[in-house]
Amino acid sequence: MQFERKDILDIESLSAEEISFILDTADRMKEISKRPVKKVPTLRGKTVVLFFYEPSTRTRTSFEIAAKRLSADTLSISSGSSSMVKGETLVDTARNLEAMNPDVIIIRHYSAGAPHTLARLLKTTSIINAGDGMHEHPTQALLDLMTVREKKGYIRDLRIAIIGDISHSRVARSDIMGFTKMGAEVVLGGPLTMIPAGIESLGATVAGNSDDAVRGADVIIMLRIQKERQQSFLYPSDREYSKVFGLNPERLKKAKKDVLIMHPGPINRGVEISSEVADGPYSIILEQVTNGVSVRMALLFLVAGGVRNVNSD
Amino acid sequence: MLILIKGGRVVDPGNLDGIMDILIDDDRIIEIVPSGKSEKGGSGLLKGRVPERIIDASDKIVVPGLIDMHVHLREPGQEYKETIETGTLAAACGGFTSVCAMPNTIPVNDNRQITEYILKRTREAGNVTVYPVAAISKGLEGMSLCEYGDLKEAGAIALSDDGKPVSNSRLMRRAMEYARGFRLPVISHCEVNELSAGGVMNEGAVATRMGLAGIPNAAESIMVMRDIALCELTGAHLHIAHVSTHESVNAIREAKRKGIPVTSETAPHYFTLTDDAVSGYNTNAKMSPPLRSAFDREAVREGLSDGTIDVIASDHAPHSSIEKDVEFDFAANGIVGLETSVSLCLKLVEDGVIGISELIEKISKNPARILGIEKSIKIGGIADITIIDPEAVYTVDSGGFRSLGRNTPFNGWKMKGRTYLTMVCGRIVFENIMTQEGSL
Ligand SMILES: [Zn+2]
Question: How far, in Å, CA of B437 to CA of B6, rounded?
Answer without folding.
Answer: 23
